[in-house]
Amino acid sequence: MQRAREKEHQLVDKVEAYEVLARYYDQLMDDIDYDYWCEYVLSLVERAEDGGGRKAGDGKNSVKGPAFASRLEGKRVLDLACGTGQFSYRLQQRGLKVTAVDRSPEMLAIAEERARSKRLEITFICQDMRRLELPSTYDLVLCLCDSLNYLLEVEEVAQVLAKAAAVLEPGGHFVFDVNTAHKLATVYGNHVYAEDMGDFAYLWENEYHPERQLCCMDLVFFVQTQSGLFEKLSESHVERAYPPELLRELVTRAGLELLGEYADLTLEPPGPTAERITFHCRKPL
């Protein structure tokens, strides 16, 4: 428990959390189907705008494709904790007007280069989402890829939800997701992962602390240099799980209406073994 407290103290305001990982993030996450994930999120919004459509329980295959999601063309979207811009550029390609925010300069640099290479006009802003200050309002705000789990205090989560609500247009949608305690305890748990990726190898060691539902993750990268030798780089991350009932309370406190909770990028309601929960909220008119 002492180690968890020390990690919290070290990382709660540490902008450099992705200084090393940013270089390898996309390679480590290359098994993620971002196209499906993007369509999934947009389809939640479309279903709500259509008056509900399918209900939770219809399953993953009920998510519609690009033609359906493209009806949001021209809408203004804010991508919080955008990382390397995997969602940002896909949203822009689907005709939405994207502003992307992240507090890591290293992650933003990769996102900006990706947008330039695809000739996409996306506004990128280096800012901490807990202290969000933007002059515009948006029709849709996203905070995906368990970014809220990196906030280690309840009030920090409350701050982000309030900031998201403040920049939403009346009737606008806010979609966020979190890793569950089940995932942090069992999938991450106290496990060690290692893999040789060719030009680099990594060692990922986890330690789960059930008292605070914290998972401390130590990552070590071994990167081959031009000389043929390997450079060792390391950094640490901490995620905290939040009970769904607490998140519901914080959504209400932020003045938002909760439209639905869904498990593992499906339309199914979350059960005890769900690994990711997506929350879909709307700002009242």
Structure description:
By secondary structure, the chain is an alpha/beta fold. The chain folds into two domains: 32-48 and 72-180 and 241-283, Rossmann fold, CATH 3.40.50; 184-239, S-adenosyl-L-methionine-dependent methyltransferases (N-terminal domain of TfIIb, Single Sheet). The chain has helices spanning 2-11, 25-28, 34-49, 66-69, 86-93, 105-117, 154-167, 181-188, 244-253, and strands at residues 76-80, 97-102, 123-126, 138-143, 168-179, 192-196, 200-209, 214-224, 230-240, 257-263, 276-282. The strands form two sheets. A seven-stranded mixed beta sheet has the order 3-2-1-4-5-11-10, with helices on both faces. It has a four-stranded antiparallel beta sheet with strand order 6-7-8-9. Helix 6 (105-117) links the parallel strand 2 and strand 3 (123-126). The longest helix has 16 residues, at 34-49. It is globular and about 60 Å long. Mean pLDDT is 89; it is low at 1-5, 7-15, 53-61 and 65-69.
Which SSEs are present, and which pair or pack?
Layout: H1 2-11, H2 25-28, H3 34-49, H4 66-69, E1 76-80, H5 86-93, E2 97-102, H6 105-117, E3 123-126, E4 138-143, H7 154-167, E5 168-179, H8 181-188, E6 192-196, E7 200-209, E8 214-224, E9 230-240, H9 244-253, E10 257-263, E11 276-282
Parallel strand pairs: 1-2, 1-4, 2-3, 4-5
Antiparallel strand pairs: 5-11, 6-7, 7-8, 8-9, 10-11
What is the total domain count?
2
Uncertain spans, ≥5 residues at pLDDT below 50?
1-5, 7-15, 53-61, 65-69
What is the general shape?
globular
Strand content: 25-35%
Radius of gyration: 19 Å
Q: Any idea what the CATH superfamily of the largest domain is called?
A: Vaccinia Virus protein VP39
- How far is the first residue's CA from the last residue's CA? 45 Å
